[in-house]
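Team,

Forwarding the record for the chain on the shared tracking sheet. I've put the sequence and predicted structure together so nobody has to dig through attachments.
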Amino acid sequence: MNNNCFSKYLLLSLLGFSTAAMAKNTIAMCEANMETIAQVSLCLDGIKKNKDRELQTWVNNQTFILQELANNSGQSTALNMFKRSQHNFIRYREDNCRWQYLVLAPDASAAIAYKRCYNIVTKYRIEELTQLNK
């Protein structure tokens, strides 16, 4: 159990460092500091990549916690439901952001709208998973 606590502490410490590093680029900074739509798009791609990585870390953490609970209790219902909710979140995020893209397509700003939406929705999911670990 001591190893388990150390692992959680290490994971949360690493998340803290990665979050501080990622805070350098925000959607507002991309939109304010980049001159062309292509530059804004690339900047938002960088945020998207970091947010995806951070989200996956939190999903892995929650999965680990629920797997431990399932191993101890013999009940895997919560783990299965979490996996299903994560799958549903991915689908919701894609559909929610895709319609925003389609409203503006074929304008070049359509990709910006999609990436902005994607990053915002992902940020909220990360915040939700973060609250579960407090």
